[in-house]
Amino acid sequence: MKKPAKKSTAKRAASKPRADFSDPAVDAVFNAYPAPLKAKLLALRRLIFDTAKATAGVGRLEETLKWGQPSYLTPESKSGSTIRIDQVKTAANQYAIYFHCQTDLVETFRELYPTEFSYEGNRCILLNAAEKLPEPALRHCVALALTYHLNKRKAARGK
User: Fold this and answer.
1) What's the CATH number where 132 sits?
2) Would you give the DSSP letter of residue 66?
3) Interior angle at CA 30, CA 26 and CA 36, nearest 5
4) Tens digits of per-residue pLDDT, 46-79?
């Protein structure tokens, strides 16, 4: 009796879930991260896309590089402030989600989540690769960033 043929390595590799990148430069940046950080950053990327999809008024996200970092913009709706993600260069086990420093986003996050996150100045939430992603709080922060301009416009109109 013949043993069933083993699947080829190429087929096994192709069946593994992988992120689909529309920009090869972004793909290259993710592929350059060390494996543990890459997995965390890909999970954070997925959270950003999922949150955008679930948040009214955001529309399509554009993924590109800004300052060499994966960045997420709302080009059609212009509803949000740019979000960037990257490893923290000075700490091998940390990665961060960056926000425009001239917004009050990080200040708002500090008020809402004083103990859930570590922060760096007025520009980012620091995350530890050894810890579980605090998804509910992080989804809320991402939604606030993706609707930052939309919410400012509504406030200006008194709605």
Assistant:
1) 3.90.1150.200
2) E
3) 165
4) 999 999 999 999 999 999 999 999 999 999 999 9
